[in-house]
Write a structure and sequence with these properties.
This protein is of the alpha+beta class. It has helices at 11-30, 45-48, 52-74, 82-93, 99-104, 125-129, 135-140, 143-146, 151-167, and strands at residues 110-115, 120-123, 147-148, 172-184, 191-204, 210-224. It has one domain: Beta-Lactamase. The protein is built from nine helices and six strands. It has a six-stranded antiparallel beta sheet. Helix 1 packs parallel to helix 3 and helix 3 crosses helix 4 (82-93).
Length: 251
């Protein structure tokens, strides 16, 4: 029997692939007239600061995002088409599309897909229109780190997400979270956003297991923060990490 050589992935190869994929995503968005930035520094300061385990996880999320957009391009669909882009995203992620969800959202809605731990796995074209973070920043930090909002609202949203995953309730369920202020914490433009979350939907695998959820929202950019905060000056210790862990026994 011949000797089989194992391909060993190194952090350096992770970073090379991260750059290639993120730059191609920039190309895909540019084809629909939207300017998106892959990273600020070729050294990938955010990605490089992650542990090897978290680097691998962030890279896998980037691969999934890239694959869903490429599948749109190959099918001849514009990536700003919310219905078709969500269908391709759910197919890429291995979730079963729910027809009720597609009937609820409008083409200008912001749509986000999360896994059962509350990690953002996918976001639509409209999300990128109201976001001034780079792809690297989005992939390397969770949403409580990226965005500032009232702490009670954050707690309410986390509870809502956990309840959705543990119940696995099918269909689009109305969210009672009215318009509120959300601010980007350390992005280029520090957008101030007026956000209203409309619907949440559990996402199921073919076997019926709930392994994620999606949220639809109405979002308007209402200005920029007067205070500019650069990433190097921030201390991660001051941020409260996302605490949303759902064990398999709860599903």
């Amino acid at each position: 029997m011949g000797t089989q050589l194992l391909k060993i992935r190194t952090p350096q190869s992770f970073e090379t692939e991260f750059k290639v994929l993120s730059n191609d995503i920039v190309r895909l968005f540019a084809s629909s007239g939207l300017k998106v930035q892959s990273y600020h520094d070729p050294a990938l300061v955010h990605y490089s600061a992650l542990s090897d385990e978290r680097k691998a996880a962030a890279l896998e999320r980037l691969r999934i995002y890239h694959q869903s957009l490429v599948s749109m391009e190959n099918a001849g669909h514009a990536i700003d088409n919310s219905s078709k882009s969500l269908w391709h995203a759910l197919k890429t992620l291995g979730f079963m599309p729910d027809s009720e969800v597609f009937a609820k959202f409008e083409n200008d809605d912001v749509i986000e897909v999360y896994d059962s731990r509350g990690t953002q796995m996918w976001r639509n074209f409209n999300y990128m229109k109201i976001c001034s973070y780079t792809l690297e920043e989005l992939l390397c930090h969770d949403w409580p780190t990226l965005y500032i909002r009232d702490e009670k609202l954050t707690d309410q949203l986390v509870k809502l997400m956990v309840d959705t995953v543990t119940s696995g309730l099918r269909g689009a369920n109305f969210i009672d979270v009215d318009y509120h202020l959300v601010e980007e914490r350390f992005s280029t433009d520090r957008f101030r956003l007026n956000v209203r979350h409309d619907y949440i939907c559990a996402l199921l695998r073919k076997g019926g297991q709930c392994d994620g959820f999606l949220i639809t929202s109405k979002v308007d950019v209402i200005g920029q923060s007067a205070i500019s905060t650069n990433w190097p000056s921030l201390q991660l210790a001051e941020f409260r990490p996302l605490e949303m862990s759902v064990s398999s026994s709860q599903l």
